[in-house]
Amino acid sequence: MLALETREQFDNFARIDFNRAYDHETLLAATKRARDWISEERGRPTKDHLDQLFDGVTELFKGISGADLKVPNHYNKQPKTPSETVLHAGHSLIDVNVSYHTTVKAYARFT
Prior knowledge:
By secondary structure, this protein is mostly helical. The chain has two domains: 2-38, no CATH class; 48-110, no CATH class. It contains five helices and no strands. Helix 3 packs antiparallel against helix 4 (82-94) and helix 4 (82-94) packs across helix 5. It is rod-shaped and about 70 Å long.
């Protein structure tokens, strides 16, 4: 990994001397890039736009007195409260054709 990162800086790896400042800094930079690359999270990509929607709707309904911010799953698989309806409608605009259950799971991951 480090050889790939430093291949453009050094033409012959046998001549690397880590007592020289340039070689030492290059090794530190390559190590940092390799560590960042390894520590990247794997799996599904994040949906920052969905988090922004959930955050905005949550803040909106926190400002309304008496608003219920719980988002439970219902037997008929439909939203009941205004906050649930807005969350599901926004989620349906971002990810087309999602069920209410999917919105509940996504909101649970968000909170």
